[in-house]
Specification:
single chain; 315 residues; alpha/beta; TIM Barrel; eight-stranded parallel beta sheet; three-stranded antiparallel beta sheet
Length: 315
Amino acid sequence: MKNRITELFQIQYPIIQGGMIWASGWRLASAVSNAGGLGIIGAGSMYPDVLREHIQKCKRATDKPFAVNIPMLYPDIDKLMEIIVTQEVKIVFTSAGNPKTWTAFLKENGITVVHVVSSVKFALKAQDAGVDAVVAEGFEAGGHNGREETTTMVLIPSVKERLLIPLIAAGGIASGRAMLAAMILGADAVQVGSRFVASIEASSHANFKHAVVNAKEGDTHLTLKELAPVRLIKNQFYNTLQSAYEKGTSVAELKQLLGRARAKKGMFEGDLDEGELEIGQVSALIHDIKPAGEIVHDMMEEYKEAIRDTEKLSH
């Protein structure tokens, strides 16, 4: 399948794995890349030396293209960028910050740059900064989210109307039918996060994977908007947050309540009570844990079937 994104990344299918903290190590990234998509190592939870190790292991596990996702809020981002260059990573996804800060540096080193946004305004800013493509992520997505709360179905055509560079849709996409819907709305590819959390190769804890599979409609909520909006599974920690809001807790007190390593506790260590469990609304449609390669294959088969079904409607 050829389009602007598959040609930009030199991949077989326009399926991009999300660069999720505590879930996206080299095993998941290489498995997705080997299946024809674009795997991504999520550097947001990695010390510089750990990132270097994951890149090296990923290179040994696949000869296909893969990327690294770097949240710009990372404290030692200059060290991560140095590793990206010295390890000759070819594709970088940046998020949670101003794309102008690092895009020129990355491009000067021959790296393809993609930036994650949640609005038309920031999509255009990313384009102006010189990125090669944009991920537009809707309100349904898991993890850290935009403040605009625009749904994927509204965001993608809104961005497509104004954007000149390739567009990747994210948020609420876990199936071939959702992929086709996003493409019809104007996306060149889709980025899939939650579905790959529930994969065998994801580095997240088995407890968290099972929590995702067991999640039902309405079990997630976007909260902590005063700090950095994040979509979580409702658990004991979430209930503590809600009680704090009801008491009129200050931003400083919310920060203290969140503390450090709350996401690691939930998603990597498997504490389903006191951990932060970041996942998208689409978790309600995820019913099993299976190999990442199988997820890519099934999405593509369902995508093709959905095209055939829409063709029947036109006759």
